Amino acid sequence: MSIATNLSDVLTQIEQIKAAHQISHKVELLAVSKMKPYEDIKEAYQAGQRLFGESYAQEAVDKIKRSKEEGLKDLSWFFIGPLQSNKTRQIAENFDWVLSCDRAKLLQRLNDQRPDKMRPLNICLQVNISNEDQKQGMEQDQVQDLAKLCNDLPNLVLRGVMGIALNTTDNTILQNEFTQLKNIFLQLQASYHTVDTLSMGMSADMSPAISCGSNLVRIGTRIFGERNYNKG
Ligand SMILES: *Cc1c(COP(=O)(O)O)cnc(C)c1O
Q1: If you measure from the C-alpha of residue 116 to the centroid of ligand 1, how many angstroms do you get, rounded to a whole number?
Q2: 206 CA: nearest ligand 1 atom
Q3: Contact 219, 9 (CB under 8 A)
Q4: pLDDT tens-digit readout, 40-65
C-alpha cells in the first residue's frame, strides 16, 4: 500500500464516520510522521497532506529544515510529544502548534522563546483523560488555570485541548474519556474566543473520537505503517 492510498483511505473513513453520526463540522487530519523518514512526509505532501505531527524535537527540526530547503509550501508542523524544558526553544523556533503542553513552566518558556518575527504559537493543552500515571497531560482541575495563563501570554494562542485515550477497544471507556474532553473543550470555548480545536483520536480509536466531536484526529500508523521502536 502506498502512502497516497493510505491517506485517501483515511480521508474516506473520516467522511464515512462523520456521515454515520451526522457530523457536519470539518474534521482535520494530522499526519503523525514521527520516526518516519523525510521521504514519507514528502510523499504525503505530494498527495495533498499539509498538517504533520512530530514527537521528537531534533528529528522534527531536521525534517522541517529540509522541507523549507526543498520549498514545500503551506505546511503546518504540530509538536505532539512529551515536552521537556530543554527542548522548548527548538520547538518555539520551528513549530506552528504545540498540542502537548501540560505545565505552566512550559507555557512560559514557549512564550518567552517564540521569536518575535514569527506568528504566535498555537497551543492545545494536553489533558489526562485516561488516568494512567505514565501518560502525559494535566489533571482536569488544572485546565482553567493553565488556560488563563496561556491566554494571557502574548506569543501564544490558546486553541483548544488534546487528549490520549486509554489503549483499549472497549467503546464505553473510550466514549466516556472522549466525552470528558469534549466537555472541557466546550467550557473553554465559552470563555475564550480563540478556542476551536478538540484533538482526539489516533489510528485505533479514530471512530469513537470523531463520533464524540473531535475535529483534529492524529493518525500515524494508518498512513505511514507501523513504527519500528527497536531500530538503531
Ligand atoms: C504517535 C502518536 C499518535 C499517532 O498514533 P497512531 O496510533 O500511529 O495513529 C497520535 N497522537 C500522539 C500524541 C502520538 O504520540
Answers
A1: 31
A2: 9
A3: no
A4: 999 999 999 999 999 999 999 999 99
pTM, two decimal places: 0.97
Q: How far is CA 169 from CA 32, 165, 204, 208, in A?
A: 21, 10, 8, 10
Cα–Cα separations (whole angstroms), residue 154 to 61, 111, 121, 122: 24, 7, 9, 11
Q: Is the CB of 220 under 6 A from ligand 1?
A: yes
Looking at residue 97, its pLDDT comes to 98
| Residue carrying C-alpha cell 513552566 | 105
- Please, which residues have CB within 8 angstroms of residue 69's CB and are 6 or more apart in sequence? none
Given ligand 1 and candidates 51, 59, 80, 102, which is best to mutate, with the most ligand atoms within 8 Å of its CB? 80
**Do the Cβ atoms of 94 and 61 come closer than 8 Å?**
yes
Q: In 3D, which of 89, 43, 38, 92 has the Cα closest to residue 65?
A: 38
Could you tell me if 119 and 156 are in contact, meaning their C-beta atoms sit under 8 angstroms apart? no
Kindly give the distance from the C-alpha atom of residue 35 to the centroid of ligand 1, in angstroms, as a whole number.
11
Establish whether residue 34 lines the binding site of ligand 1, counting it when its CB lies within 6 angstroms of any ligand atom: yes
What tens digit of pLDDT does each residue of 187-208 get? Answer: 999 999 999 999 999 999 999 9
Residues of the chain below pLDDT 50: 232
pLDDT of residue 1: 79
